[in-house]
Amino acid sequence: MLVVPDAPRLAVLLAVTSSQGFCAPDCSGREGEMQYRNFGKTGLRISALGFGAMRLPMKGEHVDEDKAIETIHRAFELGVNYMDSAYFYNNHESEVVVGKALKGWRDKIIVSTKNPDGSVDAATWRKVLEEQLRKLDVDKIDVYHFHGLNWSEFEDHITRPGGAMEAARKAQDEGLFTYLSFSFHDSPEALVKLVDTGEFTSVTCQYNLLDRANEPGIARAHEKGMGVLIMGPVGGGRLGAPSPEIQKLLPGGSKSTPEIALRFVLSNPNVSCALSGMSDVKMVDENCATASREEPLSAVERAAVLAQLEEKRKLAELYCTGCEYCMPCPHGVDIPKNFSAMNAYRVYGLKDHAARRYRELAEKNASAAFCEECGQCEPKCPQKIPIIDQLNETEKTLGS
Ligand code: SF4
Ligand code: SF4
Q1: Residue whose C-alpha is closest to residue 400's, from 359, 346, 341, 349
Q2: Does the C-beta of 335 come closer than 6 Å to ligand 2?
Q3: Ligand closest to CA 339
Q4: pLDDT at 30
Q5: What is the H or E stretch that residue 152 is in?
Q6: What is the pLDDT at residue 232?
Q7: Overall pTM surpassing 0.90 (yes/no)
Q8: Does a cis peptide bond (omega within 30 degrees of 0) precede residue 328?
Q9: Given this model, what pLDDT does residue 27 score?
């Protein structure tokens, strides 16, 4: 079921983009100003950059409201018109702060949030929605998500009689939200299946330079007329730190790793909007400048980046494909995860991320340091990787 927004609000949202000259059929906007794209078939124009309200600045245990609202307003002033929150973000405080930031802006902003649990009964699901409306202090949510939906939850719980889908359609008919959406962390195949149900107006999913598994599902969603929102365009922080290797992917280089990461996501024509969890004005300014490029990457640049990524993927596979045939290790070493951390460092130059991943393995007694060199794993590796030597090198490189 496709529900159109109430006429006055649609008129305002369309007028905002039209008055700024953003009227071309798909991506459009003057160079140097925020670009806008079609939000699927809704008729709405959405800013290429969306504000993810999951990393609002904190003061101790609580959101630093003044700083958060200043940051959000800066994004609004620079043309961001999609605001994405969720029940649990920022210790349950995100929606309340977003609600405060929306005062005076409500009619210009597409407001999105997520119901945390689709497996509950209709009444419980509805209660959460009502609580979120109160927290956001709005009469209606524009884009309402099932948070972290997976295929089995959809089949076994959400669509059962008396389940959340019944509550969702009733609430939608009553005008408590306009568009039904889902955010997603399941398999790429499950994404296509959920898109093909035809139940949803848009999807929010992971996609970035280093993880392109959802590309087919994203293309399918776009083809079906759905809006596509990308979370994690900088790989959940992986691409947040400088990496000369990543910056060199672009012929002529790029200003920073997050910049090339965001440009890559936005250069996919099937993407409506990339969400960024922004916690200060500087980050907003940088991301808005990137989302204000009329052409995030030229066709030649995108092809060059894709070719180099393919080279890097092959190089990483020379070191380890992640097949897990060598597992389990009798001493608890997680061999593929150690090599994945090492590859993040030697192939992609992501030092901080690699060191963090390695520390996590060490805390679980699964890092290369726990290898007793028993040799059981090596004959099982189809890549003939000298596992013991490579683990030694991993420990030497990332262990300290
Ligand atoms: S050689 Fe090391 S990693 Fe391989 S099985 Fe033995 S202890 Fe585990
Ligand atoms: S068997 Fe070889 S390629 Fe496969 S995960 Fe183990 S080390 Fe990597």
Answers
A1: 359
A2: yes
A3: 2
A4: 63
A5: helix 151-153
A6: 86
A7: no
A8: yes
A9: 55
